Amino acid sequence: MIETEVVVIGAGQAGLAAAFHLRRVGYEPERDFVVLDHSPAPGGAWQFRWPTLTYGRVHGMHQLPGMELTGADPDRPSSEVIGRYFAAYEQTFGLPVHRPVDVTAVREGYEGRLLVTTSDGTYATRALINATGTWDRPFWPRFPGQETFRGRQLHTARYAGPDDFAGQRVIVVGGGTSAVQHLMEIAEVAAGTTWVTRRPPVFREGPFDEERGRAAVALVEERVRQGLPPQSVVSVTGLPMTDAMRRARANGVLERLPLFERITPGGAVWADGRTVEADTILYATGFRAAIDHLAPLRLREPGGGIRMAGTAALRDPRVHLVGYGPSASTVGANRAGRAAVRDIRRLLEHERAVSV
User: Fold this and answer.
1) Can you count the helices (H) and strands (E) in the chain?
2) Angle formed at CA 39 by CA 163 and CA 55, multiple of 5 degrees
3) Beta strand 316-321 pairing with 312-313
4) Ramachandran angles phi, psi of 326, nearest 5°
5) 50: confidence class by pLDDT, cuts 50, 70, 90
6) pTM confidence score
7) Which long-range contacts (CB under 8 A, 24 or more apart) does 73-80 make?
8) What are phi and psi of 217, to 5 degrees?
9) Alpha-carbon distance 260 to 181, whole Å?
């Protein structure tokens, strides 16, 4: 068993930002804190993005604290560009990351410590920064008849690009940015596409300024305060309209249908009798927070979410969640990492003063 002051779980944007601020205030890597990451390489969830998502098409990527991402080729896959950036960041600031390491559970330990059980042993820590994001928990909606479909069903998490859909009839389910990106790519090679969303999509014109950003964050924060699971970003910000999206809408690619009533062996059927034949159903239905390893701590509220005081879990101030809820954006993750470190430092210094 390894004892340390702080364990950081996850080495994506939020985890690296937190590690940067831990070192900046005097915590020593490998002695005072460790960073654990289950991914095989640097880059967080970005390393798993589809090859056609180039860096120039990335929406809202914010630099890590203390180091700009400069000179990136906008035509290179974002997975390569950001993966190399994260790797350089870890090296530049001396932030060793243990990978691949799977965290299976966090539970109460001894003398006020938490026990973090992993595939690489157990860590006893006085505080925890959870930065596990959402990529590992793709959300699959359930529909009547889903199991009877003779074609292929896949989620955004396994989307590898449009070539897999050449000549196929494709139903894309979901109202977010990924769904729109998939549709525009697939429509170029598919025999036909159908877009299905639960609610009518809201397209946003104009820049996403600071005032709009604060309003969006406030809506997400309110859900977290109520102990409810956070909503998707698009549900509060809308879809940012681009020239490519305008062209796709003019060409009929972004004409949406409401959710179908059920899935059939050959496609889907709606309540009004409409039917659509399909070879593939692609679910661009988002992700949920990957926090099952925290279950032994009983942090969830009856509504299913974790109530927060800043970045700290209300039920256990030793546990901080960054990249969760209102901080689930690259710029939000940076701020949350700094805030978590500030509060943890204050907590640990208070504990030392009390024990003296």
Assistant:
1) 7, 19
2) 50
3) antiparallel
4) -65, -15
5) confident
6) 0.87
7) 77/49, 77/51, 77/52, 77/53, 78/46, 78/49, 78/53, 78/54, 79/43, 79/46, 79/47, 79/48, 79/49, 79/51, 79/53
8) -60, -40
9) 21
Quick one: CA dihedral 132, 239, 326, 303, positive or negative?
negative
Residue that wins the pLDDT comparison between 309 and 81: 81
Confidence band, pLDDT 50/70/90 cuts, at residue 242: confident
The count of residues in the chain is 356
Contact 237, 257 (CB under 8 A): no
CA 231/CA 221 separation, integer angstroms:
10
Q: CA 160 → CA 50, 84, 270, 288, distances in Å?
A: 5, 20, 29, 21
According to the model, what pLDDT value does residue 219 have? 59
Angle, CA 55 vertex, CA 54 and CA 61 arms, to 5°: 135
What is the rounded CA–CA span in Å between residue 253 and residue 11? Answer: 37
Nearest alpha-carbon partner for 86 in 173, 185, 20, 177? 20
Question: Where do the DSSP E strands lie in 265-304?
Answer: 267-269, 275-277, 280-283
Residue 278 neighbours by CB under 8 Å, 6+ apart:
151, 169, 170, 171, 194, 266, 267, 268
Residue listed under structure tokens 């700290």: 312
Assigned token pair, 350: 């208070």
Strands 267-269 and 114-118: unpaired
Angle at 339 between CA 297 and CA 55, to 5 degrees: 100
What secondary structure, in 3-state letters, does 304-332 show? CCCCEECCEECCEEEEEECCCHHHCCHHH
Please state, in angstroms and rounded to a whole number, the distance separating the CA atoms of residues 267 and 170: 9
- 117 beta partners: 105, 122
329 forms beta bridges with: none
DSSP labels, 170-239? EEEE--SHHHHHHHHHHTTTSSEEEEEESS---EE-S---HHHHHHHHHHHHHHHHTTPPPPPSHHHH-E
Q: What is the DSSP letter of 126?
A: E
115: helix, strand or coil: strand
